[in-house]
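Pasting as-is:
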Amino acid sequence: MISSGAMGRVEFNPMDPAFVADPYPTYHRLRAEEPVHHSPLGFWVLTRYEDVVMALRDPRLAKEAIAAFVAARFGAPVPAMGLSMLDRDPPDHTRLRSLVSKAFTPRVVEGLRLHIQQIVDELLERVRGGGSMDLIEQFAYPIPVIVICEMLGVPVEDHERFKGWSLDIARGLDSILLPPDSDVPRRSIASRNALADYFLELIATRRTAPRADMLSALIAAEEAGDKLSENELLATCILLLVAGHETTVNLIGNGTLALLRHPDQLRRLRENPALIGTAVEELLRYDGPVQRTARIPSEDVVIAGHTIGKGEMVMPFVGAADRDPAQFYEPDRLDITRADNRHIAFGWGIHFCLGAPLARVEGQIAINTLVQRLPKLELATAAPEFRQSLTLRGLKSLPVRF
């Protein structure tokens, strides 16, 4: 939420419950009045599409220093297993990403389409006779969890074991926005360590009995010794498991909510299922699963006339950029046929989401099957509650009737 101080300056409070429920009015005002905003909380906020893209592309705006920044702020150590590729800069980022990128190419993902459709069909069959469900818990969550578990080589039946750890790790992405006395960073690190212990057990099993899965391939790279250390192996496994489902759950949940709140667009998709490709891109732009990221300049950087000093925290707000009227015509209007839609929901530059092809296919199949198979689908609540997260935007639950 934003308010005006005594001198009329915009004050940005991302912890305000009203902002969590609907951040877009805040983004609009920041973009109009102070698009490069220095928060009293100690970071810079970027809300214009042009500035956000620049920040995501500029190699001077780095990621590795963020872990040390959080550690200094909270007195919490960097996790024992080190940093994943998401938090690394070249050349380490390039090396780590190359080890797993082949598993997520559009060609490989297209080969999963039939299996993903079977998963979706089975989930809908389970709930069909009940007439209602929690769309998050019973539909949006299981789809990407099953898929990433199978790809990685994690037993699907263990998902309840790591669900809480995953939520804590995802919440830990907000650490740099939280007050220094918050216990979120410590809980996040504890959950990362617990998940690392889980993977250590699984890795030990796979070393003696390799399978045709990503985990076995990563172990082979680690055993080769020149591509992957044991800590990097653990960090990569944790990233793939958590990132492989967290954002897609939100894509399916936020996207379905947006369609149910815009019955004209829901009707268009129901009447013309071939629109699902552009529909998912528009749903990603309209209310994307990732709202912001962070960078720290390795030297002084000037953005839109503002000098941001070396070592200061910069937060490009992707969710704000994707509603910028300078880039998108009528950005607050949901239009599933939007043609010029260069959204940045998956990021930009070297950290562009590795799993974007998989998330797109999962979102397309899940949402299209849902609206076609359940013609009477409707919200069973007037005010769905969003999770308390300032980085990932997703629903706690979404009760629906059909």
